[in-house]
Design a protein that fits this description.
With 187 residues, this protein is of the alpha/beta class. It is built from 5 helices and 7 strands, in the order H-E-H-E-H-E-E-H-E-H-E-E. The chain starts with 5 loop residues before the first helix and ends with a strand. 41% of the residues are buried.
Length: 187
């Protein structure tokens, strides 16, 4: 891997998993970095749905995708990730990506919240096909995220080990609440 930043770490595993033609969801599109990668990996025959509650995220992502020249295989929604199950059938999604926290460069008061993130994860698990993967980048610290981090980690611990493999990594020697990368694989 070129970089040990959390998004690069998660992208490494997404590249190993997502195939052309796959249906993928970016549950928290932010500035569109994950959306762009999913569009590229799913290819012209794939489909990518991306969600964010901030119009700024949608505009930023749209411009990023146009600039990158990715296939027009995406749909962007200015809606919460708790609505993603309205757009796809259960057991049809190959990959779902979450970046929990706030929009990079945005208002820190506008951040994902514990209740809606756990609800979206519950939906996501129902949407995943067998062999599907959820990637979580959990940011906490300073002005947001402790409650969300703790509730999400508690929820993940309750998942049936016969149905899901949960891999949680830590930046163990980094100070100041480093992000937590997590992968959930449906068995």
């Amino acid at each position: 891997m070129e970089s040990y930043q959390i998004t690069k770490w998660c992208h490494h595993f997404l590249r190993e998993h997502v195939r052309p033609g796959d249906l993928c969801i970016d549950a928290t599109m932010g500035r569109g970095q994950d959306t762009q990668l999913l569009c590229e990996l799913a290819g012209p025959k794939g489909r990518v749905l991306a969600f964010d509650i901030q119009e700024e995220a949608l505009v930023s992502t749209q411009q990023r995708l146009l600039d990158a020249g990715v296939p027009k295989n995406y749909e962007l929604y200015c809606r919460s990730h708790v609505h993603m199950s309205e757009y796809v059938q259960e057991e049809s999604v190959s990959c779902i990506v979450f970046n929990l926290g706030y929009l990079p460069g945005g208002d820190h008061r506008m951040a994902t919240k514990a209740k809606s993130s756990v609800e979206a994860l519950e939906q996501g698990l129902r949407l995943l096909r067998k062999g599907g993967i959820i990637s979580l980048c959990i940011y906490s610290g300073k002005d947001s995220g402790y409650e969300e981090r703790d509730r999400v980690m508690e929820y993940l611990k309750t998942l049936d080990y016969r149905r899901y493999l949960v891999i949680c990594s830590l930046y163990y020697n980094r100070p100041n609440d480093p992000p937590i990368p997590v992968l959930v694989v449906r068995l």
